[in-house]
Write a sequence for this structure.
């Protein structure tokens, strides 16, 4: 993924948002990028990602500290909406 460098200052303090499986990380990243919140992925077992294309321990997603509250709010709203749609059938 290519990020627009204007979105964030590299001096911003980044903070942990969540640990996710690869497919979850793709969805979360899409939601956040759509809201113009930059995301960094940190692989704990990056050698597995390089060799097999997968990871055993998931991927840690980090966002700038200044965007943490908004990111959590967006993800919560998205999960609530999906739960309501599932209940409707």
């Amino acid at each position: 993924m290519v990020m627009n460098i204007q979105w964030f200052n590299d001096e911003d303090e980044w903070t942990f948002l969540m640990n996710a499986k690869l497919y979850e990380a793709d969805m979360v990243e899409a939601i956040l990028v759509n809201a113009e919140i930059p995301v960094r992925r940190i692989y704990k077992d990056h050698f597995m990602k390089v060799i097999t294309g997968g990871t055993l321990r998931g991927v840690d997603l980090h966002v700038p500290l200044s965007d943490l509250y908004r990111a959590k709010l967006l993800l919560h709203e998205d999960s609530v909406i999906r739960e309501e749609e599932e209940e409707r059938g």
Remarks:
- The chain has a mean pLDDT of 77.
- The beta strands are 14-20, 40-43, 59-64.
- Residues 15-88 form a domain with the Alpha-Beta Plaits fold (CATH 3.30.70.1530).
